[in-house]
Design goal:
single chain, seven-stranded antiparallel sheet, 197 residues, two-stranded antiparallel ribbon, alpha+beta
Length: 197
């Protein structure tokens, strides 16, 4: 049993190593890291470590986006639609890092071609919202956020009956994230702990 677990960990390490060192223009096959976030529902904040998901073939841009995220920050990633001008890569994943607050089921990750494309998408998304107050209070809002000099961006939240959706950018990395949960407090508690870059 111990030998099998060691082989899985080594296999995951090799896959991550290939992603980090890869740079070819051919499709890359990756095996997402095992989830430490709990059950397969993606709703539990703890639990047992799952086995790696079946391998997924990503194109080079999506593979580079995945490789730019922290190890174990996401799992079960798949290529997603690149809706919008200037989206260079797009993934849909399960949050993979265990936090005290339960994680949402899915997370969308976007990489933008350049800063102008990121600003354009933020402007488009912001125009679709009517700012009603404060995200921290579970209200629809368009805000700025900062964690350090390197991690800052725009934070958008949209509140509706039974649905609280958030979108945030990390401007210096040209990356955006989107997710949702029925409970605003639970989602914001998870977001405060989650650091995928």
């Amino acid at each position: 049993m111990g030998g099998l677990a060691g082989a899985i960990v080594i296999g995951a390490g090799v896959a991550v190593g290939l992603l980090v060192s890869g740079g070819s223009d051919h499709a890359t096959t990756v095996r997402p890291a095992p989830s430490t976030a709990g059950s397969s529902s993606g709703r539990s904040g703890g639990g047992t470590v799952g086995s790696p998901a079946p391998s997924v073939t990503l194109d080079p841009a999506d593979a580079r986006l995945l490789a730019s995220l922290r190890p174990f920050a996401v799992t079960d990633c798949r290529a997603a639609s690149r809706d919008g001008d200037g989206v260079a890569a797009a993934l849909t994943c399960a949050p993979g890092v265990a936090t005290e607050a339960p994680a949402p089921a899915r997370l969308s990750v976007l990489r933008y071609r350049d800063a102008a494309a990121l600003r354009g998408d933020v402007a488009r998304r912001s125009a679709e919202l009517t700012d009603a107050g404060d995200c921290a209070r579970g209200q629809t809002s368009v805000e700025r956020w900062a964690h350090s000099a390197r991690r800052r961006g725009t934070f958008l939240c949209s509140a509706a009956a039974g649905r609280f959706a958030v979108f945030w950018t990390v401007d210096d990395e040209l990356i955006g994230f989107a997710t949702e949960d029925p409970d605003a407090g639970r989602l914001l508690a998870w977001w405060r702990e989650y650091d995928p870059i």
